Each structure stands twice: as structure tokens, then as C-alpha cells.
Amino acid sequence: MESHEIAIVSGLPRSGTSMMMRMLEAGGLSVVTDDIRKADVDNPRGYYEYEPVKRIKEDVSWIPGTRGRVFKMVSLLLYHLPPEERYRVVLMRRNTDEILASERRMLERRGEDPDHASDERMAEIFRKHLTHLEGWLRDQPNIDHIEISYNEVLEDPRPVMERVSVFLGGGLDVERMVGVVDRSLYRQRKT
User: Fold this and answer.
1) pTM over 0.85
2) CB 133 within 8 Å of CB 89
3) Cβ-based burial of 53 (10 A; exposed 0-12, middle 13-18, buried ≥19)
4) Which of 58, 104, 127, 166 is disulfide-compatible with 114, CB 3.0–4.6 A?
């Protein structure tokens, strides 16, 4: 990856973005994280979040400091990226039923209401968002993106990580990236 470019791992919540961040870190890419949100039973290897990302609508002053590095951003916030920067977005995709089951389980563990919207309604919202996002990403001259399937990473990570390394300019340690995959954390499987 060029030193003036910014890498972003993005996707819907519970789509494997934290796993991809771990893989990129293991591969040799410098990650932007503040470790404020600590690992827990839902993400035992950590969340890899950076608090300023959540406030991108109000403040983008931190963006230039991420050049040549990678941070994680929920896909809904991608629309607020400043257009004067160059980005490489790794967009994580995961089976929607698995995302919904994982989110539901996490909310239950936190004591929050998992039924604020039906799974059918949430699946429709996710589908519409991703369809719109894919078109928007294609139209951005300053953003290159690659879609990566969480499910494919768990099934056969090596070819997927080779694609990611090439997309990010090569030179990542694919062996170490593959070594990060922990199939025991794949708990909400599609039935």
C-alpha cells in the first residue's frame, strides 16, 4: 500500500471486521486503534476500534494521521470519508442470518432488547444499505474496494489473504495472516 493511501476494514456489525483487522496486523500492516473497547466474550480477540471514527461526521482532522495504516469503520460511516484522501476499503461480507444471530446473542448478553426490530426487517435494511453502498463505492474515484467473505476466510483463508495482500499493494505476511484464523470463534453458523 502506498504511504499516502489509507486502508479501511469495513462492513456491517458482526461481519468479521475485527478478525480482518487482526489478520492485517499479523501481516505487518500498522493498525489504528485505541483499545478503549476491551475484548469480551463476543469478541475475545478484541474489537480494534478507534473512537474518533464514530465522530467522523463532526471531525475528520484525525484522518491524515492514518495514511499508510488501517482502521476499522462500520459501513454506514464510509459515506463521510473526506474526498481529498485515497482509500483502499476491505469490505467484509457475511451471511445475513449469521450476522443477525450474532448480533442478537451479543445484545442478549448485554441485557439489551434483541427484538427492537424483526430479523426480517433488519435483513431488508442491511440488504438495501449494502446494495446502495456497493454502487456508491464504485462511483468514488478516490476509493478502491474489495469484497471479502467472512465465510470464505474461515473455509479456506490462504487464497483470500493472498487477494487481500495484492489489493493492499503486496508484501503482507500471508502465512501469519492465515495463522490468525480461529474457527472456534465461528459460533453463529447458518443452519
Assistant:
1) yes
2) no
3) buried
4) 104
